[in-house]
Amino acid sequence: MHNTLDLKSKNEKDILRAGDILKHGGLVAIPTETVYGLAADATNEEAVKQIFVAKGRPQDNPLIVHISEMSEIYALVKEVPQAAVLLAEHFWPGPLTIIMKKSDAIPAITSANLDSVGIRMPEHAAARAVIKASGVPLAAPSANTSGKPSPTTAQHVRDDMEGKIDAILDGGACDVGVESTVVDATCTPVRVLRPGAITVEQIAAVLGEATVDKAVFGEVSPGEIVRAPGMKYRHYAPKAEVLLFSGAPSKTNDAILDNLCEDDGVLCFDEYKNCYEDSGAIVHTYGSYRDKQAQGRLLFSSLRAFDKTDCKRILAQAPRPFGEGFAVANRINKAAGFHVKSVDTARVIGVTGASGSGKSTVAKCLTKMGWHIINADEVYHQLLTCDCALRKNLLQHFPDAWAANGIDRSVLAAVAFANANSLLTLNAITHPSVRAEILRRIKVLKTQKITKIVIDAPLLFESNLDMDCQFVIGVTVPRTEAICRIMKRDEITIEQAHMRLDSQPRDAFYRKYADIIIENAGTEAELQSTLENELEAIKAK
Ligand code: TXA
Ligand code: MG
User: With bands split at pLDDT 50, 70 and 90, how would you rate the model's confidence at 403?
Assistant: First the structure.
């Protein structure tokens, strides 16, 4: 039994103390930007053994070795492959672990008898300071009891490790919240063994190519050899059983409400918390359904929060498995033992982008692949002529838009765009109507057994239609190209084209919220080929 010291990362003396304990073979939990790590001198067999004991970790699961400077790497590995050099240049310090052939400086216990070792240079200032203060490379797995969700606060570490280790260095809550991306650089192309905040797309952008190990997608059968031994164990599991619902957030929310029983807990996105107010269920949220960073930051602490309750089951909304969401989805899938219920009876996806991005060309290409398009602009224009309630409401707020034969769309647009408040009013009136009508049409399409549906909408996010989509494709294009396209299409001047684009969200907006980005600067044939060959998510099923 240890007396576990309570150290603070803001205190210079505590950093030195932590370094000293580590140098002398002790165990200290340290903050990193991903999760808290349980550190020991990676070259000290006895110290590393104690990590396995404190965590209850299976001996065949290797540890990641943490360094603070690139120069420290050469003693730890046989060689640094070119791919590893490039990845280190781009992503270190940061949440990326690179697997290379190990040198003799790494004892067998640290690498679990493998001939390779995972190396990471963390970005967190306190983590780096402790590595420096210790003067040794630090083996540091996540500082949780094996099988439990990784710790993202010092209190989480205390809950698991109090009395079992020498000290905990408190550095506040971790920024990223899911463990580093693990990439194997001993093979070509490199292979992602565990997804993290550095995305597969980012790695592929640097190296030209990257694959994803199949253990990331599903459970491994007993006895099967896996590249990252850690991937085969049940992981991240709270005490309660996790039932995961995947699909459009509005649909997974409905499914959870339908399935909710007494003693169930709910793990949902912020937007849906209110839906459970009357149910009496214990509810924890993990960020907005649009905010993959928040989901990563909050997932483990929300899962851990259920351990303090008597919930028997946790009914959870699945995140979108794209970009950084891929890591979040992987962790919650594992927490659920990969038992995921898909709630969608049709595949509904969104396509959006600014004027001139070629969003409608994307929709056209998707038509050729058997997708049915619902064009939100067309729906809006039809509603203006035939939805009496909508027209009445609009005319009350915008009486000037009344023309002899109904609402004059261009006058309405001019009045509404004149100031920010009237635009808000217009959107508050029109968006719910358009969304309701689109949902009605989707229902009808489903009765006709049409199951591949695209919502093509410039204001997809603004009207919350992304809630009804499995995922959203954002279409972007360089500004000069967008200007040319708008001028040609709408026969307007360059000034007018610039004004139009300035009134709309920038590409950064679509990059932030869309799940998949298509840079549509080439020809239609190129676009068709990208959609047909490179986008797994929309390939015919
Ligand atoms: O973000 C992180 O990586 C955190 C912080 C503390 O740095 N550490 C962490 O370590 O998550 P751990 O031990 O919980 O996870 C290490 C993962 C396991 O899945 C393990 O199997 C894999 O990396 N791994 C480590 N070395 C490996 C190797 N040589 N070959 C294949 N997989 C390896
Ligand atoms: Mg771990």
Answer: confident
Report the distance separating Cα 541 and Cα 537, nearest Å: 9
pLDDT given at position 221: 65
pLDDT tens figures, 466-491: 999 999 999 999 999 999 999 998 89
Across residues 386-391, what is the average pLDDT? 92
CA angle 290, 292, 298 (to 5 degrees): 115
Give CA–CA dist 459/453, Å, rounded.
17
User: How many whole angstroms separate alpha carbon 452 and alpha carbon 430?
Assistant: 26
Is 410 a residue whose pLDDT tops 70?
yes
Provide the β-strand partners of residue 245.
317, 341
Ligand 1 within 6 A of CB of 110:
no
Check if 327 has its Cβ closer than 6 Å to any atom of ligand 1: no
Provide the angle, in degrees to the nearest 10, between the axes of the packed helices 292-306 and 325-335: 20
Taking each continuous run of H as one helix and of E as one strand, the counts in the chain are 18, 23
Residue 118 CA: nearest ligand 1 atom is 26
Classify residue 353 as left (phi > 0), alpha (psi -120 to 50) or beta: left
The 10s digit of each residue's pLDDT in 159-210 is 999 999 999 999 999 999 999 999 999 999 999 999 999 999 999 999 999 9
Name the β-bridge partners of 118: 64, 99
Q: Please, what's the b/e burial string for 364-400 (b: 16 or more CB within 10 A of its CB; e: otherwise)?
A: ebbeeeebbbbbbeebbeebbeebeebbeebeeebee
Tens-digit pLDDT profile for residues 344-386: 889 999 999 988 899 989 999 999 999 999 999 999 999 999 9
106 has pLDDT over 80: yes
Which residues face 194 on adjacent strands?
182
In contact, 100 and 185? CB cutoff 8 Å: yes
- For ligand 2, the distance from its centroid to the CA atom of residue 150, given in whole angstroms, is 6
E strand map for 399-476: 402-403, 406-407, 452-456, 472-476
- Is the beta carbon of 191 within 6 A of some atom in ligand 1? no
Instruction: Using the CB atoms, write b or e for 29-42: b if 16+ within 10 Å.
Output: bbbbbbbbbbbbbb
Torsion of CA 39, 43, 46, 50, to 10 degrees: 20
